[in-house]
Amino acid sequence: MRTPFTIRLIQSMPRTGWIALALFAAITWIGVPVAHLALPEGHPLYLSAYTVSLLGKILCYMVVAVAMDLIWGYAGILSLGHGLFFALGGYAFGMYLMRQIGRDGSYQSDLPDFMVFLDWKELPWYWAGSDSFLWSALLVMALPGLIAFIFGYFAFRSRIKGVYFSIITQALTYAAMLLFFRNETGFGGNNGFTDFKRILGHSITSPEMRVTLFALSAALLVACLILGRYLVTSRFGRVLAAIRDAESRVMFIGYNPLHYKLFMWTLSAVLCGIAGALYVPQVGIINPSEMSPANSIEIAVWVAVGGRGTLVGAVLGAGIVNLAKSWFTVSFPEYWPFFLGFLFIAVTLYLPDGVVGLWRKLRTRKAELPPAAPVSARGATTATLPADARPGVQPDATVMESGAPSIAAAKGATA
Amino acid sequence: MNAVSTDLDRAAADAFATRENLREQWEGEASTSHLVQQGELDLSHNVILYLDDITVSFDGFRALNKLSLEIDAGELRCIIGPNGAGKTTMMDVITGKTRPDSGKAFFGQTIDLTRLTEPQIAHAGIGRKFQKPTIFEQHTAFENLELAMKADKRVRRTLFAALFGDERDRISEVLRQIRLDKEADRQAGLLSHGQKQWLEIGMLLMQEPRLLLLDEPVAGMTDDETERTAELFVSLAGKHSLVVVEHDMAFVEALGGKVTVLCEGSVLAEGDLATVQEDPRVIEVYLGR
Fold first, then answer.
1. B132 close to A213: Cβ distance less than 8 angstroms
2. Is residue A67, in this structure, part of any structural domain at all?
3. Helix/strand number for chain A, H first, E second
4. What's the whole-model pTM score?
C-alpha cells in the first residue's frame, strides 16, 4: 500500500513542528490583531503601528530566507541575487498601488506623479492592466518566476555552478538595479514608488489594513514552511540533495538535474516575489536600492546565521539578524555594515551550522551526560572512568546524531 | 588519463569548455525519447553493445584509437589493460559522458548511444559504477536504493512519489543481495569502503539495467568481500550483461568470462584469461620491452 498524500504531508513535519506552527499561527492571527486593535494604547501588551509594521516586514524577510534555504541549503546553489526577485514582486504590486492612488497624487492626474513629472502623456505599454488587482497578483508571481526560469535555464543547462553561479546572480541583480535607477525605465527612477493610498479601495494606513497585511505575511510564512517541509522530505527533495552531493551519479541513474534545479530555483523566486508584494505596502516604499547586491548578500547571511538546510534555521536567522539590525541602525547606524560582515565571518568560522547547529550540538552533549548525576559528581565520574566506559557515551549513536547535520551543512557551503 | 576522466567534479571545471557539446546533449530530448523505451532494446543479433571504429582525442592525444568491441547479451566480459589504455574513456563514451570524434556506438541494434544524453542512456538500460564509489553520502542506504530505483524520474512524478509495497520489497531484496540489510537506515557516508562499493552495485541493480559497466568494482575491498563480489557478478550474468574493468587478476579469474586486453586505445587481444596471458603481445605490454 502506498501512503496517501495527506498522510505524507502530515508526516513531513514532526509533531513539535506542527505544534510550533499552530502556536505561531495563534499568536500572529489572533494575538497580534487583538493587541493592536482591541487593547488601549497604554496597555502593557499594546503593539504600536511601528511594531506591527516592523514585525510584518520581518515576516516577509523570513519567507525570503526560507526560499533561499530551499535553493541553497537543499540544492547547494548559492544565489546572491535573490533580492532581485523580492524587488520584482514588490515592483509588480507597487504598480497596482501607484494606480490605486488615482487622482489623489500631488499633480491630481490619472498618471502616477513621477510620469507627470517626466511629462509623459500616457502609461507605457507594460503598465497595462496594472489597475487590476488580479492581474497584479498574477504578475507578482509570474514576473520573478519567468525571469528566474529563463536565467536558470541557461545557467543550469551550461552547468554553471558554485561561485561562478553566485557571481552571475550578483551581476544580474546589479544590472537590474542600474536599469531601475533610470527614469526612462518607467518605474520611478531612484525614488521608486511611494505615497501609497489604498488597496482594493481600503486605506493602506488604517490599523485594520495593517493587521490584515501582517496576518497575510504570517500565513504566507506558514504556507512556505509546510510546502518547504513537504518538498524536502519528498523524493523530489532527496533527488535535489543528491544532486548537491553527487551530481554525476544522479545523472547516471537517470535524473536530469537541469529540471530539478530549475523547478526549485523558479519556485524559490516566486516565493520571494510574493514576499516582496506583501513587504511593499507594509513599508510604504519600493525603490531600486532593494536590488543592491548588499541586500542579496544579507539574505544569504540570514540563512547562514540560522543554519542551512533546516528551514527553521532560515526563519530564526532572518529574525535574529533583522531584530539586531533595527536596534543597531537606531543606536549605531554607521557600524551596521561592519557588524554584518563580522557576523558573517564569525558564523562561518565558529558556527558553520548556524544557530540550529549550535542548538543540536548542545542537545546531543546534554544527552551524552548521565541524566540523574548531580553536576559536582559528574566531573569526578568522568575523570575516573576510561573514555570508552563513560556512561551514556555510545560512539556510533553520537556520530550518527551530531555528524549528520554538520556534514549536510558543510556540503551546502562548498557549493 | 584515468585519474582525470574519473574525477567526477570535472564536469564543473569543464562547464565552459564543453558547453557547445553539452548544448547538443540536452536538446532534442523529446525528439529522441522514443528510443529510450527499454522495451525497444533490439537484441535480435544477440549483441547488446556494439562499438565500431571509435576514436576519441584529447588535445591531440588519442585516448581511443579505432576501438571496436562487441558484447553479447548476457555475457560477462572483463576488460584489462595498462594505465592509459583507454578503459575509462571507453566507459565514458558508452554512457554519453564523452562524445567520440568518429565511430559508432550502438546499444542493441537500434539505439545510437552517441546521440543520447547521460540520463537517456541510463533510462535505455545501461548502468555504470565508477572507480571511486559515488553514492549519496547524506542519504541512508535505503534512500540511495530508492533514488536509483527504476521509476519515472521526471520532476512532476518525484514531487508526489511514494513507495508501493512491492517497491519496498524490491529494495529490501537488493539490500539483502548486497548484504546491507542491517545497515538500511544508516547514513551511507558512514559505511565502510567495501560497503560503499556494494551499495553502488546495489544502486545499479535497482535500475534494472540490461548492461552493467563496472569500473574497478573491487578496489579497496578485502579478499572476502572480493570473493563475494565475484559470486554476485557470476550470478547476475545471463540475466544482465556485465562489462568489468579490473586490475585484480585473481578477481578476473574468479569471474571466468571472456577477457579483452586494451592497449593504447584499441583492442590488443581477446579470449579467455589463460589464452590472453600467453599472448606474447600482452606479455610485452605488461612487462615492457
1. no
2. yes
3. 19, 4
4. 0.80
Residue B274: half-sphere exposure toward Cβ, Cα within 13 Å:
1
Which of B98, B138, B57 lies closest to A244 in space, CA to CA? B138
- Decide if A29 is inside a domain: no
Distance from the B163 Cα atom to the nearest Cα atom in chain A, whole angstroms: 6
Domains of chain B with bracketed CATH: 2-11+40-287 (3.40.50.300)
Residue in A235, A247, A260 to test binding to B, most B beta-carbons within 10 Å: A235
CA angle A268, A187, A101 (to 5 degrees): 100
Per-window interface: A 252-291 vs B, CB < 8 A? 252-256, 258-260, 263
User: Which pLDDT does position A177 carry in this prediction?
Assistant: 96
**Integer angstrom CA distances of residue A288 from A91, A180, A292, B14:** 9, 6, 7, 36
pLDDT at B24: 44
Q: Is B128 on the interface with A (CB under 8 A)?
A: yes
- Which residues fall within 8 angstroms of residue A140, CB to CB, at 6 or more apart? A89, A92, A93, A273, A274, A276, A277
Domain range holding A111? 50-351
Task: Tell me the three state secondary structure of residue B57.
Answer: strand
Residues of chain A short of pLDDT 70, as ranges, are: 1, 369-415
CA separation for the pair B72, B80 (Å, rounded) = 18
Q: For residue B235, what is the enclosing H or E element?
A: helix B223-236
Q: Residues B8, B12, B16, B19: is their CA dihedral positive or negative?
A: positive
